[in-house]
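Trying the structure run again after the queue cleared.
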Amino acid sequence: MDVRVWFNICMIFYHTSAAESVRGKVLFANFTSINEIDVKTRIVTVLVNHGDSYVYSLDYDYQNKYVYFPRYNLNYIMRFPYPSQNITLQHVVNTSSYPSGVAVDSANDHVYWVNDNGNTVSRCKLDGTNVVVVSKNLSSTLMIRLDVINRWLYIGYPNKGISKSRFDLTDTSMIANFTSATYCMDIDLIEQRLYWMNYNGDIKSVNVDGSDVKTIISTNYRKSYDVGVLGSYIYYAHNNQLVMKNKSQGSIPTILYTDTNAIDSIYVLKSTGM
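Done. Tokens:
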């Protein structure tokens, strides 16, 4: 059996068992807390109060079971164990100004981040040691997503588009061009597609090779700041509402939850973590 195929099978088996306890959950952050909602029961639980900071990105380390997030206006990255009966915040690393996007590569013990107007991609070990600036002099960027298995890194530039590169920023190409300002994106590793929601409320998608760009949903919501994809469903935040909608045209959106604060980021927990 091919070594890569065997590795993928092993990873899927491991993460399937590791992620059972978070199946059907969506995490979301507002200005004061990070929360969990059970999509089936609609029960919302406050996981941790993070201390009055914008949190524009969430990512999950399925292997070690930690949620990572940047504190935008305080200039560092935090994590906490999840699921856990004793959730405590842990400081990971200080960053340059305004960390906005975070992505975890647990297979190689790395966490990556990008800074709003910082024009850099940086990384460190999952415990915050060995900080490395991977690349400088990029266009202004907010978003980052990883395909750990195939070793691709995707960066979103709000007024430009999405680039695809190796983890060291070599072999770079643009795979999508934005038609209006965009501040959020997600990757579906099963479909091998990128999704993003632009300022005008259109949720669009592209294959990871840059082909088949299309509009999935037109929400007519302006200034929406995060989107997540799982299977047949798209989740997105509009102001203080968390919304779920089937990808099929004509389906009716479901408001899962209405917060008292604006929802700044969401993360849809995958059933396998792949």
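The chain has one domain: 3-268. Worth checking whether this holds up in the mutant runs.
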